[in-house]
Amino acid sequence: MDDQDIKPILEGILYVSETPVPLETLVEILPEWDEESIRQGIDQLKAACDGESRGLELVEVAGGYQFRTKPRIADWIGRLKKAKPTRLSRSALETLAIVAYRQPIIRPEVEDIRGVDSGWVLRTLMEKGLIRMVGRKDIPGRPILYGTTKTFLELFNFNSLSDLPTLQEVEPPSEPEALLQEVIPNIEPVMAEGSEPPPDKEPVSSSG
Fold first, then answer.
1. Total structural domains within the chain
2. Per-residue pLDDT tens for 83-126?
3. Residue 170 domain-assigned?
């Protein structure tokens, strides 16, 4: 549609969406334009948000596009939202890093790397929507296979798992602390009061 500017339409769609919108979805709901025109509109919107005078940026994350406030104004946004930052204990961050790199992975494999029971932490990460069951391994007992979710990608601003640093950069895998620092370099590990027991006292679970 040469007589209709696609940019304000894209801007409105992406603004009202609570989750990243994939290019495929935009192509589906905007049949008046071809894929190349949609891509060009997105690139123009990105460029328009690059200036210092803008508080929003258009990012490609979790396989889609989403408007987000720029990191440099986070303090002021926090005054309005009064939202607490995501709080994950060091053991939760460590486990999440292992799952992110080794997925699909079963609980015993996580525990071999961490050297401690991890059932409680895995359940906590599932409750937070950061990991999910992706199947069962075809071995005796058919244990659950774990993998990360789109929420994980959104939270840590990854477009896909290929955005993670390579394993060669964080070897050896027997030292998950090094793995942790590469996966989530901008999150301060904290132990929220009552959030979970110390690593050497994590309860043993018979499931998962």
1. 2
2. 566 677 888 888 998 899 889 999 999 999 888 899 999 999 99
3. yes
Task: State the residue for tokens 């027997």.
Answer: 174
**1 is a domain residue:** no
Order the strands of the 144-148 sheet from edge to edge: 105-106, 144-148, 131-136
Residue that finishes a domain, picked among 81, 110, 140: 81
For 188-201, the pLDDT digits (tens) are 433 333 334 334 33
Residue ranges making up the domain that contains 189: 90-196
d(CA 98, CA 103): 8
What residues does 148 pair with on adjacent strands?
131
pTM for the predicted model, two decimal places: 0.62
Domain end residue (candidates: 59, 81, 103): 81
